[in-house]
Amino acid sequence: MPLRKFRYGGGIRHNPRNKKWGFLSPNMQNKDDLLSETLERIGKEFEGCEHELGGLSSQDRVLFLAQIVVHSLRYEDPQEPMKRFLRGFRKHRLNEKIVRYVAAGFDVTPYSARQMLISLLE
Questions:
Q1: Which 3-state string (H, E, C) describes 15-67?
Q2: pLDDT, tens digit, for every residue of 48-99?
Q3: pLDDT for 24-53, tens place per residue?
Q4: Which of 3, 43, 68, 95 is deepest in the core (most CB within 10 A)?
Q5: What one-character DSSP code corresponds to residue 73?
Q6: Rounded to 10 degrees, what is the CA torsion of 114, 118, 120, 122?
Q7: How many CB atoms lie within 10 A of CB 73?
Q8: b/e string for 105-121 if b means 16 or more Cβ within 10 A?
Q9: CB environment 89-98: b (16+ within 10 A), e (fewer)
């Protein structure tokens, strides 16, 4: 039996991802498409954030990533906040890594190593 679109409302839409049939209005279909396109645009940054947060517990990582996505989708261009988060994660991780090397190399605490590095910049 062929699918029919209803005269008033959206009609029937097949969702191949979950093999279910459902009713979606044209407006909901457009919003679903918009969400899919937006999530695809931030995919690279999202996966970068996911990688950078790999050291966290699974529960913390999930919570943090969910908050990042929701925060980013509030912006007109959600890629920008995602990129800022990613840069921030990478900057923090690199900073901590270098401080640990300096601390180990000079046999001092990470706090002392950080203070030493700061004093070199003054």
A1: ECCCCEEEECCHHHHHHHHHHHHHHHHCHHHHHHHHHHCCCCCHHHHHHHHHH
A2: 999 989 888 999 999 999 999 999 999 999 999 999 999 998 999 899 999 9
A3: 566 666 888 888 999 999 999 999 999 989
A4: 68
A5: T
A6: -170
A7: 14
A8: eeeeeeeebbeeeeeee
A9: beeeeeeeee
